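Notes on consecutive records. When two proteins share a document, each keeps its own sequence and its own token line. Never mix them. Below: protein one.
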Amino acid sequence: MKLRELHIINFRNFENISIELNNKNVVFGMNDAGKTNFLWALRFLLDKKIRRDGFTMTDYHKHNTDDKIVITLKVDLSDYEESEDTKKLVSKLNNSDVRNSQDGDDFYIQLEAEYNDRELVGEPIMKWGSNINDLQIMNSRGMSYPIDDVIEIVYIDPLMDLERLFDKNRKYIFDEYKNTDEDIELMNGIEELTNEMNMKIGNMSPIKEFQNEITNEYKNLNNENIEIELKSEMAINGIYSDLKPYIKKRNDGRHYPTSGDGRRKLLSYSLINYINKRKYEDKIVIYLLEEPENNLHRSMQISLSKQIFEDNIYEYLFMSTHSSQVLYEMDRAMLIRIYTQENIECKSYMYQIDERYKTTKRKLNREFSDALFYNKVLLIEGPSEKVLFEKVLDEINPHYEYNGGCIVQVLGTHFKSYRDAFNGLDIKVIIKTDNDLKSKKNDKHKFELLGINRCLKLINKEGDNVIDIPFDDNISKGNKEALLRSKKQMIFNDWKSNGCIDEFKKEKIYLSEIDLENDLHTIIPDSMANILDKNKDKVVKYLQDRKLLHMVELVEGLSKEDCENIYNHEKFRCLRELE
């Protein structure tokens, strides 16, 4: 089964949104944007425990009870031959005469709720079918519907209580019907030991004294022929009643209570996984995880991320989060951004790691997911740019992050994949990149216009331009660098004259005439020479030799005036775009 689309009408802060889905969905956005309400829409649709209470007036968008609440989930059943879950659902549908073999692969599950002014409640009506314009009403059995027999929503609260969870599910954890003859023999032996233990407890003088006195106090109030005794809970409720989870380190005889919020939460997730494998093995389980990062240390969040995105446990998942660490292992996930303009808006984007970068997935995701929670993102090539730009912004626009701006270094390789993803989520993207040349392996006199081609591909144009640069094979390194520098300048001017550089700028793509260091040199040459203690004609080469180290050296000496000159110059217009 494949989740395809969720359509929400007139529910809470969603007036009318339609959002593309995948089987793993990450919901993110600012506080109060509607992430929890998005999950609640799914709970109303697929969780009979939530649905049975109906809708209140406040569940209707802006209290508009004249219109119905409509929540529709579209699923794809085309994987019938491969998916046991699809077979479970199709079997239920065929038994209910709501679908036959001639129907297409799309299937819809819908909830409608018309507000009853007399009863002051929105009464849910469940529908399903293959034709969205002709859905059939499900037959209800009390508060339950046929869809509840095959789909189970498991909502995991960010503030889950380990003890309550353990106590609530004892019967699923310890199924006494599965006891073997050996288990029964052991239980009889435990009962004998328990009785002996209680007898010895009852003979302790503090216990005996308390039992006698509390019995007398009770008889003063109600003179019955009784005695009050203290007993172990295990003797009354059975051997499972007193059990509590403890942690035992390997090769250590001591047991430690599951204290610490992070440890308790991870154990709670483990317990939920264990229970649901047994409790709902005949159902399709859809997990709703709300802010799972709460109370988890960064390393624990990363560990949880691996399970969420790589294990089969969470095959169908909706997860709301504020944490980039929880997304470090993300792949083939639908990103759903909820944000506010005049009305609540939703954008979704299918994020998938290219096979070429699977080995660096965590690094790629770390940079990407950090930026998901901002409104404007400046993509740059490497650490030297980041050091410079952060210094300039700290001096001139120190609140750029608070105002929704973010700088992300992506290397040239990932510019397009990042830009497409951010644009798909309606996040403003600005790019600053060098006018690089790259020699061809088979001909050292041919150079790919790497910077130009990169910018062209970013705007979905052909980007395979190559140029011949003839030079004497015995040319010195310095003269060759000077030749390439002049060629870059010529290339930039040629592409500027044909209008492409201006076209790039309209798309917020800013290409250096040569590179970052030369851009700086045209703006603050004297400051660079003084700070780095080099001749003006050598400072660019010095910066390029050990980029990050020497950029840090330069940045430490930049004055506020230098930063203002950089910030306001057209070559660094990308920084002003973060305003």
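Protein two starts on the next line and is unrelated to protein one.
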Amino acid sequence: MLNLTRPARFAAFALLMAGITGAAQARDRVTADTILTNARIYTVDKKQPWAQSVAIRDGKIVAVGPAAAVAKTRGVKTRIVDLGGRLVLPAFGDAHAHPLFGALSKTRCSLHDGKTIEDYKRIIAKCVSDTPGTGTVYGVGWEDSLFPPNGVPNKAILDAISTTRPLIFDSVGGHTNWVNSKALELAGITKDTPNPVNGTIDRDPATGEPVGSLQESAQALVAELIPPPTDADYQSSILYTARLFNSLGIVAWNDAGVEFDDAGGSRMVDAYKAVKDAGKLTTYVSVSLKWKNERGMDQFPGLLKAAERANALGIPTHTVKFYVDGVIPQKTAYMLAPYEGDTQRGAPQIAPDTLKQAVTATDAKSMHAFLHAIGDGGVRLSLDAVEAARKANGAKPTYHMVTHLNVVDPADQPRFGRLDTYAQFQPTWSSWYPYMELTEAAIGKKRMEYIYPAGSIVRAGGKLAYGADWPVATANPLEGLEVAITRQVAGDPKAKPLVASEGVSLAEAIESHTLNVAAVNGMAKFTGSLEAGKNADLVVLDKDIFKLPVHQISKAKVLVTLFQGKAVYGDLGALKP
């Protein structure tokens, strides 16, 4: 037996204990699967805005910060990816999209690529030729601005293509149907047909005959002529949108207007469930249930059933979408004062008292109200409803949101902050100059000073959340970020800005497309910023948008999109330092 002196025995014991402790620490130390390093990482975390490295394990962020600190999570099998100084951001979210409608509109007779009426005529004629038979030819995507002075198209253009089969085309914003004479005939629409509630059959002022344009709820008069999508169509639409959005760096969306029945069923929710169960849903989804304007509070029990069922199926559903008004060029948006040179000011599509009651009931169930409001009158009614809910129910962690906000009266701009209500803008809409010309003709120069007042709302203490309203506008967040800052056409420094003072900073714009979207989508606990404990949802860009001239931000590209640590677009292995 080795005979050690007492000091030597103490030394040997200390070495033994140190070894045991070291082994235990090694076992307890979190080892990353992947470390992204040598990067400029903008975290959207105010405690640590910038970092050099991020460590990922099992789809979650286990460390983010200086390279030396994150390197402590390295193990024998850890994959090290040198990003060569590239910019990393949290993956983007979208607070307002129409994935099913959008994808279907791209796969049917799409007019989105048309730039002139001649383009529309050519595309529609080809769709008719490519679709034999006598059934309806339906499509989406025509622009209001190509039909001045009020965005109302005429049936004569479609009749020149076909008078023997119905032609029905939805506007890019979904508020107007353009139809031919055959569609009017089959739907039984004549000069004697009364306008439905909240809808308008546009008519020839001299004869009273329908001209071929149906506004808002009047679209329902031809709805039965449009072939309904199948369940397979819905599922394919989700997959199409997911691929598109992933390629743009988006891994979260809110489907802004899902239909349901009184029993709580929804084919749209079922489609999401099917895609998720197949392991193909490469994005977070939240669902907004569409309030039926033609009904009142009698629909609320069915809405709650639909939300309960969807949540039980694993499709988060905590938002109700209210269409408070219409659009400005056709004068269906609700304004506080009459339209320019007119006596009318539009009308709300939901009675103010009903809206207050519905939003209060929604808030009481800890659900969020998502209010479509374009005119300054619609915005005020929306904020009044939120204020009524706050007074009735007290402070609650509900993220109410008003979307579009084409015109916001200065008196209402500070109310977003006071009512803890998000202003949900489509940033690229600030560069739609043909549409803005129709808008100015309808509301005049003075009210154009209050168009999309994002900067004023932020300065008054409000928060922004971005959503493209795709397919109405491009879903590309990088293009949106640039326009949010410049208020100009993306990539064109010479373009006239739309009220330049209403631009926001790059940091504010990024937060509004990441963390703030996660908040209104009910996902801020696990995504929206790059912090330890959150899911590894991030994008790698080819250019550093913090260093680019502002008018080049839209030219940056997403190289890789990670969703829960896995690449759903691009390949980390293809990146060279």
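For the record: Residues 31-85+564-574 form a domain with the Urease, subunit C; domain 1 fold (CATH 2.30.40.10).
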